[in-house]
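Reopening this ticket.

The earlier resolution said the output was attached, but the attachment link was broken on my side. Pasting everything inline this time so it's all in one place.
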Amino acid sequence: SAELIKYASNAFLATKVSFINEMSLICEAVGADVHALATGMGMDRRIGKKFLHAGPGFGGSCFPKDTLALIRIAKDNGVPCKIVEAVVEVNITQKQHMIKKIRKALGGSEAGKKIAVLGLTFKPDTDDMRDAPSLTILPPLIGKGAIVQVHDPQGMEQAKSLLPEKVTYIDNVYETFIGADAVVLMTEWNQYRGLDLDRVKKLMKGNVFIDLRNVYEREIMVKHGFKYFCVGR
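Inline output:
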């Protein structure tokens, strides 16, 4: 029972993440706002507002491992675990959708495009790169000819052995934007929330800003001259 409490708790939270990510795809299709949807759902105390943040998918040391462990226990004992299986599948699909979103924002091809990536770790305030969405999203873009330069306050050393050698690591966040055709905000570190947007725009070659964590508001980004793309909004 103690073992299953741990696995089931993390699987349930992972379910909330995959659920809101799947809702984000529906929101994009029909013109709804996943932020408004999550806020409305979160007002119901039976549901709660935590873990209803649309993004590029979950990672880290617990959710991927514990969902798979629960599925394995179910299979070994001949019982279904279809909900958790779907959670894992949706998480994989969401990361693939982010690759397509970035490619589409770049006009259909990333070949030769310089991309400034903000954040590599699976969440802020950690150097943990285990199953981070960046590890799934960035390599295919690099493989198709994207030039990727990245900044992360804590995760860059860990990332060097996990990402392709072609990635350029930059210590100063504003230097990451120099000559970039596009920005991809991958992890919602606090220091990325208060960027000097005019300075960012001047340093860039292009004006595409792809916010995979919905940190910024479209009206503000458009006002500063960006072509703004986000998740489910």
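Reporter confirms the inline version is readable. The mean pLDDT is 97. The chain has eight helices and six strands.
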